[in-house]
Design goal:
The protein is of the alpha/beta class. Helices cover 50% and strands 14% of the residues. Helix 12 (349-358) runs antiparallel to helix 13. It binds zinc ion.
Length: 484
Amino acid sequence: MTLRIFNTRTGLKEDFVPIAPPRVGMYVCGVTVYDLSHLGHGRGAIVFDVVRRYLAAVGYQVTYVRNYTDIDDKIIKRAAERGIPWRELAETFIREYVTDMTALGVRPADIEPKATEHVREIIDLVAALVARGAAYAVDGDVYFRIKAFPAYGELGHRDLEEMLAGARVEVDERKEDPMDFALWKSSKPGEPAWESPWGPGRPGWHIECSAMAMKHLGPEVDLHGGGKDLVFPHHENEIAQTEAVTGRPFVRIWMHNGFVNVNQEKMSKSLGNFFTIRDVLRKYDAEALRFFLLGTHYRSPIDFSDQQLEDATRSLDRIYRLLEEVGLLAAAAAAGPRDAEASTAVAGLDARFREAMDDDFNTAGAIGELFKVARTVSGALARGGGLEHATLAEFLGAVRRIGEVLGVFSSEPAAWFARLRTLQQRGLAGDVDAVWVESRIAARVAARAARDFAAADRVRQELLARGVTLEDTPKGTTWRLKKG
Ligand SMILES: [Zn+2]
């Protein structure tokens, strides 16, 4: 099987043929750092995190570049509202973004360039476009000349008139064509500015991605991604700026992920259904959010609701219960019976996972395959009261490999149960830190083992004072929060 990926530019699923295998250059447009990231940013980050992990898992050497737009009108405006320097605002929200991505299990990109650190490259690129007649300067601004690039609109499959009707184009009589877009903007007094051949100014938004992709990955990149909202104008503009200089295709495959809706409505601040990543993670586990987002194909829209996240949490919990049971049986000395159906299902899991992923990263199908095998394993355990060691070990191994790609099913079951308890109990009785409770329980177990029953009882009282009751069972000590 070859990996096939849907290419927005051709509108077809294509075989993935990198320029210089096994190397793969991958560029994804990052965030403009002026506010906390919302669920839509989270989806994009997770989608491309999985793409990158999968490419690495099948043997490619991936260089993943994801930028930060750290100079922009929105940043300047927000910083002015807060009365802080624009750089400070940008740095703050870069840190916040890293915090969110870490919480989501999104691995850092190999290179995370910032626009402000590439102004030299941006100016050189703009100058090259001017020299080729693809751009022109007016009063300190520089515009791309749409007429110089006949393929404009090819990515979104639209002609100039359709784009003009759909775009809110600034009327500016200095532009030769209403669709011409800014590559370089002259600075107003008091605004951040860099020296350039056209006077003091700053880069337009689109040009930074062309400059940074070319600098870090070369004139042609294998994969370029972003949200569907970036197709036009951002990615059309990237293609125009880059190809007008290089004279060859900029990107092998353009990938775009779909939107996140909330309760079947577009997420927006004015509708009051706008969620930051942080809002969601206060209520749900990050792994449940990943699992939910990966349960729909990346190109389709996805509908977020509490019900969906609760369902995702329950499904994930079923898998972790099975993994716990399988782990205990695999570690036990006594062997269970061989089950032909289970051993066949488990042996085929890796291949079926790969088949689904090779079909345009069909994570929903891939997760479905895992659940099918999990049901078979569960059934065999119930029938036979156990399973042979080889099947158990193979199942654990396959789930681990799948977890490495998806970033779900990859916790220790005990860690998952502890995180889940914390979230559930937060809902019941405010914040009791499950990690703290577990550590006190461990102290009590140690005291009892040393036959220091007075110390053990002090721990029980200490926990009781915080509303935590303990219950000793043959399998160990469990705990719950007293209600009310
Ligand atoms: Zn970009």
